[in-house]
């Protein structure tokens, strides 16, 4: 039906017959795309989702999902969620601080362009090389570790810091989380109109009051939405974690990686359930993001 | 007062980003005891495995980009021209690879296209390479589609098409000689981003057992000390170059448009 609407101005008056004849062929134009997406995105995902609810001989079951609720798998999910949440929250706060400093803090204007370009680079600099960079910085013989030890007498290892741990992974993830936050929140901060602040001041609001009662409620959906996006971003990250920790840290992506490689759980369908759990968690986070983003656009257009 | 806070926040952010970069650069230069040298780089660049895997990844990236252009430009064009009602659905589908982690997608590939299935792509080397390319195209889909669609928004697709048709152009001519040159900047930004993604991708290549650059880096990282840092510097340089090229083509296009 859509094609009628678009081609009406030129065609209705002169030759309505022709438009009607070409109508069914319009679908052919998106057919290659539809086939590609079905074969390499939808079907593989459906295979996992359906497999999560099947026994090896193909009948329906909830045992695989129930199998996730064992202590070791639950622990893997829990530490994954903790790392993703910690890196998302810290990334939001620090990224907001940096972005606010540039947009509202009265810094010279020329900083803005390079900062955004650099954020684009840094948010894409994830994976294996990022792990190497952090090993060279905060690893046992990293530049910062050595500097703190020889110059300031602070031994990070004695203080209980280890790069191959919860905080180590969180710190590493922050390297791509902060720039992603900067990239997303800077346009939102730009959208805060000068008039709102002036109106608030005329009505007698102090700086903190303006932030608490005007700016923050407007920004809140974008902040929360970005938090969800950063969470999903960290939750799906595999390469950085594997390159950094090998398999010493038991997080869900590493567990799934090992399961695909060599069936460490001893049950292929438990692997499906593990992957299904990942989709559910990132799916919820992304739905939140899309929904909150739509809300925030009401004010920040 | 406000400005001091602002400088403080910015300095903190900059330190966070530059320390690891300084760390890896510094480390990569320290292979020779007691002095700075490019030994680690020389060792890496001379490694036949490096040349092999890097070449493989570059080829994969180029094929992925070509495939992406052939798939996405006609689709995005067709949707804009003939089926605008379909746009929200297509856009939703193209965002799915951001929701479904790459490791889950490749897990599905392995189960769906193994040697005992109806389409045994993983049975042969060419088949696996093809599957990996489709996987990369899926990963790049959100960026590529968005870039092309934004590019199409800035031109009048309907008028251009009708003008070309009345001069006797067929669909292939319209796409290759009218639409593609007009959205070339957008396509190029998508292409560079795809390149940056594919070149260091680890998960898919590792699980499909292909000799790509990502798994090579991981392997080297597990066994060597200084070479990984040199690799990280090289990888960062590539990412930086890709982003720089995107900026460059965008700026270039603005100039040509302003002159008109």
Key structural traits:
heterodimer, A: MetI-like fold, disordered N terminus, B: 260 residues, mainly alpha, MetI-like fold, 0% strand, globular
How many domain units of chain B? 1
Secondary-structure content class of chain A: mainly alpha
CATH-level-2 architecture of chain B:
Orthogonal Bundle
**Biggest pleated-sheet summary of chain A:** none
CATH topology of the largest domain in chain A: MetI-like fold
**Which percent bin holds the helix content of chain A?**
over 70%
- Looking at the structure, the CATH topology of chain B is MetI-like fold
Beta-strand level of the residues of chain B, as a percent range? under 5%
Describe this structure in words.
The complex is a heterodimer of chains A (301) and B (260). Chain A is an all-alpha fold and 301 residues long. Chain A folds into 2 domains: 2-51, no CATH class; 64-300, MetI-like (MetI-like fold), CATH 1.10.3720. Helices cover 76% and strands 0% of the residues of chain A. In chain A, helix 1 (2-11) packs antiparallel against helix 2 and helix 5 (71-103) crosses helix 11 (207-235). The longest helix of chain A is centred in the N-terminal third of the chain and has 33 residues, at 71-103. Chain A is globular, with a radius of gyration of 25 Å. The relative contact order of chain A is 0.12. Residues 1-19 of chain A have low confidence and may be disordered. Chain B is built from 12 helices and no strands. Chain B has one domain (40-259): MetI-like fold, CATH 1.10.3720.10. Chain B has helices at 2-28, 39-46, 48-81, 87-99, 102-112, 125-153, 157-166, 171-182, 184-199, 203-207, 213-223, 227-259. The longest helix of chain B is centred in the N-terminal third of the chain and has 34 residues, at 48-81. The N and C termini of chain B lie far apart (46 Å). The interface between A and B is large, with 83 and 87 residues.
